[in-house]
Each structure stands twice: as structure tokens, then as C-alpha cells.
Amino acid sequence: MALPKAFQNPKDFFDECIAFLKEYQYLYKFPNTDILVQNVLEKIEVDNLENVDVFDKNFKLPAFDILEDLFSKLERLKAIHNVFEEINGLENSVQVPVSPKKRHEIVYLAKEVKGVCEENECDVVVDFGSGLGYLDQIIFETSHLKVLGLECNSSHYVGAKKRQSKYHANSTENVKYIKHTINDNSDSQIGEYLKDKFLNFNGFCIAGLHACDDLTVVALDLFLKMEKAKAMVIMPCCYHKMEQEEGIFKNFPLSNCLKEVFEKENGFQFMGVPFLRLGAQPPCLVEDNLEDSVFNLLARGVLQLYANKHNCKLKRNKRKAVKTKSMDRNFETYIQDACTGFSLSHNSEPSFLKDKVDSPEAGNLSIDLDEIRSIWRENSSSMVQKKAAIFILLQNCLQPVIENFILYDRIVYLKEKGLKNCQFKRIVNERISPRCLALLAYK
Fold this sequence. Notes:
The protein has 2 domains: 23-61 and 283-396, no CATH class; 90-253 and 399-442, Rossmann fold. Helix content is 42%, strand content 13%. Strand 1, helix 4 (134-143) and strand 2 (146-151) form a beta-alpha-beta unit. The protein is α/β, with parallel strands linked by helices.
């Protein structure tokens, strides 16, 4: 990302940003599912809230005097980025079945890769996490660059080969796929793959779409190590999935500059997984569906409060445990769906589960629906909903600052390693693809 205009150097920015984040840690320290367990909404104290309609389309934060200090600090910490420029007709180059979001992402990332390769005399692209090969094929078709796709998932690797045979048979000599798990020591293997597949080449560009968890950081180190790696265009995501060792993230903070401030302020105590998750959460237009967001937040919070009360853990039985889009904020429908979407785990059967009769809809899940309904009534008043709405809006305002904090740490890291030409750039439309930022680096 970038250093906000109010600051002259990284240390001053990190100092002030950590002080701000420490002061307002109640907005992100805990998982949103624990919002009722941790009494987070008690921290939302604003005057005259009962007379304000926070769900009105014209309502904007800051609307309360007590929040002025928060927003004045936020304004200082905001970074200014480039405006995305859309090109008419660019997406028409994709002639195979693919979602509109994926089409948008691959054509604009391919466009950026092409430009970077031209500027840095790269004739090969190495795609980190190539998936089904969508990006690789569009890079070749629009730039005629050779592409090496590296993918650790066997089904994706096989799928990419099948798609190539079906849709892109003319690319087999120039787009190659290898099943490989990228790690800190992949530099020699990548070098061998390139020699084997493409013989002679001038230099290569590392590319990556949705480089999850630690992959972006691994890519940075490999880029620095490999002599023929001349450029990089990679889009990071899922910061909260980065590897941890005894509760400490292996690759956050990354720069020595931030590490010094972080350790001094015991940042690990309040910048954990929920913090990084909020940074990875795409900025969204919550005003358009704020009531739905509040319902989902509180309904899930009620389930968590129930489980916590009985010393149990909720476990999702499927990726989307509750299908909230079709229930029109009906809590009765929500809990019936939750009975099949979640299961309770516990070390020994608590007394509250004894003598409960499982309903056919509940499967193996035994819960007291009457008690859950009672908890909902206690935590869904008009005032609670308004506070939950303000909490969501405040998180949405914090998200860009948190993401900039995380990503600027990586820029400082690269500069500490002697790399001068590096920046984050918005390369896609965030309304189509919320993960819109790419790290560009050149040697």
C-alpha cells in the first residue's frame, strides 16, 4: 500500500497507527461471532441514539460528536491510491466459460503483467498458484509470453491440463503446468523447471491471483533470491490464514521497522486472527444491506452465546452453515437452518443436553430452541440493533486502514532488503472484485 500523506517515514506511521489500533481494539480484537459473548456492543456509547435512524439510506458516520476523535485519527491514517481505469471491450478477449468476476480479474491482471514484462524485459511469467489456468491462458493469448503455472492442488492441476486440451490446444508449447508446492526453498526447483520447459529466456515475472495466506510473503523472498526474477505482480489475500507458531504469526509483522514498534506495544495481544481477518475483509457497501448484516451478526452471535453458556463449541457442517439470503431476517427460519448447518461438540455430555429430544430436522444436534429464542429476544432490541449497525459501519471504516497497515509492512520489508521499486496498485474494479490491490515490484 502506501505511506499516508501525514507522515514522513514508516516508523512515525507505525507508531501512530498502532496507538490508534490499540485504542479502538474492541472493534476487531474478537471474532465477530463473539460480539455478544464479549459484550462488545457495550463499548458503542453514543448520545441520542434512540432518536437516530441508523438504517436510513442518508445516514452516514460520523454522525455523533463522540466519534469525531476516531474519524479525525482515521483520516490521518488513510492512504491515497490510484483510481482504477476501466477499458471498454477488454473483457471480450475471454472466449471460454468463466464467471464475470473471474473474467474481470484475469483480463486486468494479465494486462498489468504484460505491461510490467515489457518494461522489465521479461519473456516468461511464473504463475504462483495457477489453479485451473485461467490467468495463464489469457496472458499467453494477449501477450504471447511463455507461462509456467505452479499449482499444489492435484485436482486443479489436472483441471488446468484438461481445460488447456479443450479450449487452448494452441498453447501447449508455451503454457506449461507443474504440480509443485511453493515454499521458501523453491528457487532452485523453479529454476530447473524453467530451464527444462523453456530452455533460454531473458528473465521472468512472478504473477499471482489471490495469493492466499503466506504465499505472497514467500513470493517476495523468492523474488529477492532469484537472479532472473526481474518483476512481480501479485494480488494477496486471506492474511488471517498466515502460519502461526505458538500464537505468533510467522510473517507478520515482516519489516524490522514494524517489528520494533509491534514488540514494544505488545501488538500480538490485540492484533491476532480477527485483526488480520478484518484487514482481508473486502470493503463493502454495507449501507445497501445494513439491516441484513445486522441480523446475520446478531443471529450468529446468539448461537455463539448459547454455546458459550453451555461450554460447547459450534462447528460448521458445511461451508455455508446457514443460508441467510433467502430467509428475510426471520430468526425462526435461521435457527431451524442452523440446526442442520452446525453441530455442538463437547468433552462430555453437559446436563442441559440430557432428556432433550432431537427433532428430525436437527439431525445429531441437540439444542434447546426455546432457550435460544429467549436469548434472541434479550439481544435483538431496537437499541442493540442500532449499536450493531454502528459496529459494522465502524469496522467498514477501519478495514482500509488495517489492510494498508498490513501491506505497507511488506513494502517497508522490501525496501529494507534494498528493493526501491515496489508499490501496491489498484488494478481491478473493487465493486466487481473486492480484492483489487496488486503488489508490483521491479529490480
